[in-house]
Every structure is written in structure tokens, then in C-alpha cells.
Amino acid sequence: MSKKNLAILLRARMRSNNSAKSSLSQFPKEIPSNPQENHSGDHHIVRNSSDLDTRGRVYDVVRETMHSAISASKTGVSDITLNDFQEGYSSLSLEDRGKLLLALAKEYDVNREQVRELIKQYLGLETPSSDDALSSVFYRIEWNLRHALKPTYESFFERLNTHPGGLRFLSILRADLLSILTKENTPSLRTLDSYLKEKLGMWLSPATLELHQITWDDPASLLEKIVAYEAVHPISNLLDLKRRLGIGRRCFGYFHPSIPGEPLIFIEVALMETVAQTIQEVLWDNPPIPENQSTCALFYSISSTQPGLAGINLGKFLIKRVITLVKKEMPHVSTFATLSPIPGYMQWLLSKLQTQSRFAEEERGGTESNPTSSTFSEQVLLPEEEQALMSLSDDSSSGSNGMEVLLNFLTQKNCDWATSPRVLPVLEPILMRLCARYLLQEKKRGKALDSVANFHLQNGAMVERINWLADRSEKGIHQSGGIMVNYVYRLENIEDYAQSYFGSGQIHASPGIHSRL
Asked: Where is the composition biased (Basic and acidic residues) (predicted)?
């Protein structure tokens, strides 16, 4: 094994789960949230008290440093102050980071007294009839009001962004903020998150990002990140990685100059003769065809590497740029499609079956305890599906109706149904029909309920085909019953499809998908 191969393998295995926190010179390492662990007797009480005192002092220093960085004039804040804040913040426990971010959100928000005063002044003026001296007063108050409505922490974020390593630090800070919001979802923290998300989206505009084709010749440190961050189909070994970067395959990443050597997001592409129906076709069941024979560029994995950039749609721009690049390099490629997971399907289906089974049981028993059951009751299964499922009912999957039988099959511990020659032919048409319903009809706030579907539809794709047992891995069976979906990007329709989806939630799909409903 070469040094390069060894470096990739070892560093991927030894990669820290929390690389954001490092040993710092000016501040102690992060203090554990439970300092009493692994101590006994009186000694641990003294140690615990000492640790808590140290933790409190560090927090106070970091908070004071933050205040200095925010309150300094535009030219007065020094690199040393910003460095101290970044290092000090990284040394804090997640609990103390939450306290600090809450203080930032509340104490450095909009100056509402100033806003009220300006609004009073503005409403007290008569509307000018011409461009005279009175209109200049209007313009001045409007300018002042616009600036007063900006939170004080805006300048803090802007200063960090222009500081070396600041953009990466802000991404880490937002990741912490998102984690904290799951436990303490307050209006001030939500507003802080929305504001930082908007700023990050602006600073990471397509004009600032560099598209790079990742190859086997790239530094080991970069390839190690591809192994570590691959989120859809884990890279099993070095041979797997080399294949994904070799003939018939492409990998492209978006990079930002402020975060060198680290892709913000990357996409894996397979050059194929036709649109693949199973992930096994893509992940090397067979050798790739010669590239000059390919007519389809299949996007089979897209992974974001920065949790703090959640909700910022970098993938939209990445896909469009990759399509343009591949089309220019290989004019013979005419189809651009995906082979995508359906991560929310089984969760939705199991919830639906459980709810409707309960409603059906209440109706059978004449129970009136829940008057809403009749209102929300629906026929999940067709009559012929109900009959087919009841014919399968046995001791291992018994039930009083088809929904209960299906629910029992799908919740079997080892997913035995997925390998049963007796069960599969019955379940296939049922699960495929309900999957089409899930993708096309189940919505949240007018958009597709499934997160991956929503991503591709808002980028201008259409739902082309769903594929039975396309992913037989344990993850694939648990997420979607093994079903995967092909989305197709038709170059002439991308903008129209994206616009109609954004405007009215319209989902474009092939006749084959509609025929399953």
C-alpha cells in the first residue's frame, strides 16, 4: 500500500467526531459537562469545584472578548481580539456555547427604543409633495431607520467573515446554534439563526465558489474528506474510492477560498448508457462502459460537509454547473438524471398504517372516545390489495385487516419480507403505488414532504420512475423498502419546472408514475 493510500485509510478511521474543537494555547480544552465522572472520594469534589470555577472564568473571558469585538469601532477591532474570541469559543462546552449565543441573540439585537423613536419622527412628518428640503428629512430618517433595524450582531458576523478562518468558524457557530435550537427553540435564537443563515447564503453565492473535479491525483487530505463525508452510499474501502474517481465516473466539489482543501458539498456522477434502475448497477456490479458510449450522466450521491450550512441550497448551483460542464466535455451525453433515495417514505407509511389501523379498530368496536377518527379515516389499501394481504396472514404477520398485516410485515425485526419469494410479489404493487402517492401527493406547506424530492423538484427536475428493490442494503430497506427514484433534469424545462414548483407546488412527473396512483 502506498503512503498516500495508507494516509487516506488511517486518517479516515481516526478522524475525530468533533474536529471543530482543538487544543488551544490561551484557553483550556473543553471542560466536560459532567466533571464528576471517573473521580471518587473528597478529591473529586475539590476537582469538580475547581473545574467549575475554571469553566466559569473561561466563559466570562470569552463573553468579554465578544463584547469587545462587537463594541469596537469599525477600524478599532483587532485581529488579536477576533482570534481570542474564536479560540475561546472553541474551548467552551456546548452548554456554555448555548449561554453565549443566547446572550448574543438577546443583548445585541435590534435597538428597539431607537426604532420606536425614528418611527415616531417619521410618522410626524407630512409627506413631501416635491423634491425639496422636507424630502431630504424623509430620506435621512428612512436611512437611519434601515440601519436601526439591523441587529448589533450584524457587524460582528461581518467582522468574523473577513477575518482569516472566519467563514469556517461562522459555519461551526451556526451548527452549534442549530443543535441548541433543538432543545431551546426561543424567538431570539431563531432570529439569530435566520440572520446568520441569510448572511452565509450571501457570502457563499455561486460567484464566490470554485468548482473542482476531484480525482485520485488530489491530495490525500482531500480524498480522506470525501471518504468521511460521503452521506448517501458509504465508501467501503480504497478500491471503492478509486473506482468512484476513475473511468466512467466523476466527482465534483464546490470550494470556497476561505476554506481551502475542504469541499462544502460534492456530487458523484456515473456515466452510463441508460438511466440506472438499481444502485448495484452504479456501484460496480459490472465494469463501466467506455466513456464515449455513454449517453446518460447519473447523479447518484450528493453530500454536504458542513452542518452549519443546512438550509443553504448550494446543491442547486452545483448540479446546474456540473450539467453545463459535462455537456461541454461530452456532447454525446444527452440525459441528466439521478438515482435517489426516498428517506422519508417508510417513516411516513408506518405512521399512516398505525394511525389508520387505530381508527379502523375504533370504528369496528363502535368506540366514540375519539370523534376525529371518522373524520380522518381513509382507505389506504385498495380492495384487491386488502384481499391479497389477508391471504398472506399467518402467525408471523397476523392482523384483523390488511393494514395490520402490512404493518406487521414492515416492522419485522430483520426485514424478512424483503427476501421472501412468497411475500415480495404481493407487497411490490402495494408499496410502489403508495410510494408514488408519497412522492406526488404528500406535501408540507405546499411542497413535497420528502426532503430529497423537494430538493430536486425545486431545482427543476421531474419525477421519472420509481424502481423496486433498487437498494437492498439495510439502510435502503429501512428508509424506503428498497425503492429508489429517478429524477430527470430536462435542460429545456429546468427553469419552467422550478418556477411552477416554487409558485404553486406543481410536481411534474412521467405518465408511468401517474399510472401507479
From this structure: 39-48
